[in-house]
Amino acid sequence: MTDDWSSALLTDRYELTMLQGALRSGTAHRKTVFEMFARRLPDARRYGVVGGPGRFLDALERFRFPTPVLDFLSDARVVDEPTLEWLAGYRFTGDVWGYGEGECYFPGSPILVVESTFAEAVLLETIALSIYNHDSAIASAASRMVTAAGGRPLIEMGSRRAHEAAAVAAARAAYIAGFATSSNLEAGRRYGVPTAGTAAHAFVLLHDSERHAFQTQLDALGVGTTLLVDTFDVERAVLTSLELAGPRLGGVRLDSGDLAITASRVRKILDEHGATETRIVVTGDLDEHAIQALAVAPVDGYGVGTALVTGSGAPTASLVYKLVARARETGADAPLEPVAKRSVGKPSKGGRKWGYRRLDGQGVAGGEVVYDYAPQETRDLRPLLRHLVSGGEVIGREPLDTARERHTAAVTELPDTAQQMSRGEPAIPTHFEQRSAM
Amino acid sequence: MTDDWSSALLTDRYELTMLQGALRSGTAHRKTVFEMFARRLPDARRYGVVGGPGRFLDALERFRFPTPVLDFLSDARVVDEPTLEWLAGYRFTGDVWGYGEGECYFPGSPILVVESTFAEAVLLETIALSIYNHDSAIASAASRMVTAAGGRPLIEMGSRRAHEAAAVAAARAAYIAGFATSSNLEAGRRYGVPTAGTAAHAFVLLHDSERHAFQTQLDALGVGTTLLVDTFDVERAVLTSLELAGPRLGGVRLDSGDLAITASRVRKILDEHGATETRIVVTGDLDEHAIQALAVAPVDGYGVGTALVTGSGAPTASLVYKLVARARETGADAPLEPVAKRSVGKPSKGGRKWGYRRLDGQGVAGGEVVYDYAPQETRDLRPLLRHLVSGGEVIGREPLDTARERHTAAVTELPDTAQQMSRGEPAIPTHFEQRSAM
């Protein structure tokens, strides 16, 4: 997407027709608070990982209604003339707070808090949820893979199994969660994610022989490259690699078969030929469980594709964006009142929220505390909300590596149960602290 | 994405480094055939649905390396100077054949056939797979939902649970597979997908009362609108709706609770008040099974979100793009030879393929026939490959409704077993017809 792109139509039609209704009834400019949260963690995970704040801030700044967009809305009769006039001048002027990107979250964590008029805030619902639901799903899955890899580097290589634009966001989210590199070039260009890659079977098959292909790759990319050795016979290919590259060969990649057994055999051959520093990279439908199962195998890195970009069983974080408070009158001073629907099975808690993580004396997280008031801050309460947008101005931008470091710290702080790959309860419980029953 | 956007970096790094190697060894300009196919259907489905050809042709035309893209590749040292020079002039000049959009496919169907030099064809791997894998996953899930709905209209409303750009493609794919409308406005603007929507709980909660909200919506959108009636008490909300709108109310939406029981109660109230034409639309985590379970309930339409955009358990179609033939020398006349890797568990069949559907005397499909030669065409063989790109020129564009009609015809042609929601074998078997053992 280029810089002049408007994000405004990446939106459900009803956001605009609700705006039309509210403009007509005079409720559009009532002050409101919308909150994004998860009712539960996907797939019985131990924690979720916030992905999306950086991309959301970009989308917020591009949320405008230029003439071509207004023309479509007019031609398609989506909204009436007064609504089009209001949209022409749209610019978000409110405040946004949110959990930092890479932070862990739990059921009920107020991941994003948007305070503005109904008209301004309701329009952001779809785009905010699209970005957070996708990026958080990927970051949450990626974090478990990083844990399972136990310090060995992970390459993200799932672009081909995801929508082409989602793939770029997935590479970014995986990097935040601790992946070392991505195969996706646009993620490198747009976000500075380090890129990496080896070669495909097609490259071997193109050439007159495997030897011909290996020699070509070594000539073109140097002895530090990684050769793909499973097109025909793995052991023979490894011997050919060593013959051509010598013991300084960078790496070999295995993409099929029993990876643990094959890696052991390959390691033995490499070591016998003095190639003790040559790395073994494995790929091929790996997920966190397959990665963990390879912990004792002589593997130096993992390439992960499909499981990463599909959220490893949970392709969406299922976050929701709900109205939790609104004024009964228009005006900045009108008091906010909590509101909540009572739909069967989908209850929500009214009122603006403040999220904190409670730490014990050793700095280990013991609980997520969600207040319906701004609490007195104490040393054992780590505040989780950052001020992202102030009076419409984006103030919460940060480098991608800041999010990556935040994630490492947030996971380290959790109790050991967070590292379990099994399905189960959240690693810490969520407590709702209410000043008054509402 | 705007029109000046280049799609070239939506690509894995190794496509470019393989190009660099092949340019150096002189194999880059060997004629090749790459083929896209599925080893198996996702999730033990009965058939897959081809989604993506239209978007792929758009991406192919935008696959260029303008200066900013080359600058990135140079600065990040992805490829060397000779490769950058070659990329600067990149334009696909080969031929592409593919299954029509909306067509059904089976394991081994040659969904896309790309014939060109290695250099030109290998670069398209990632973008082609990203588009087809996403769009086919969504179309395949959507088609089952359309079957389950048995003629009742389906609204696609999953944008908030998918990456914001994937959401637009998902709306398009769902429409091809038979959905009536989408909530996604960009899908309306870009592809002409009809858009629709109702209202959210936030709209009800914003107002002073449910009655206030309903009156506002009726004033703004007219009596034909659909009111959301489950924010507090469904039956009271329906009575309020009828009081305000009378029996000509367009519809009511239910988003929670036991939808079958609630719909029956609501239908009874509506009918008792003469609102026999008022439609009941149900939403709330519906998938094809939930839709089918509501077949006997008095429901007039379904809104489907999460399950649609996540492919209902199969978020990627797992299609692969493999080199199946290549010349041993450069030049247009050099003969193509079939190639195939022998990796454990991932075999592929070498050689260019031609796909046909065999029909019986009643026009019912009996098998997918994949030839490794162009067969004599007969009346019982329906050819499945369309010529999409000829000498680099896109010739296969078609209106979205053509794909939609093709899909209806293709599903109708399948045997009854295709309509089963249970997991199982493909509805028809795939036969590989080989002229010679290769």
UniProtKB/TrEMBL annotation, chains A, B:
Record bears the keyword Zinc: no
Coiled coil: none
Keywords linked to the UniProt accession: Glycosyltransferase, Ligase, Phosphoprotein, Pyridine nucleotide biosynthesis, Transferase
Pfam families per record: NAPRTase_N
Post-translational modification: Transiently phosphorylated on a His residue during the reaction cycle. Phosphorylation strongly increases the affinity for substrates and increases the rate of nicotinate D-ribonucleotide production. Dephosphorylation regenerates the low-affinity form of the enzyme, leading to product release.
Primary enzyme class: ligase
Molecular function via GO: glycosyltransferase activity; nicotinate phosphoribosyltransferase activity
UniProt-listed Enzyme Commission number(s): 6.3.4.21
Highest taxon above the source species: Bacteria
Protein name: Nicotinate phosphoribosyltransferase
Protein species of origin: Nocardiopsis sediminis
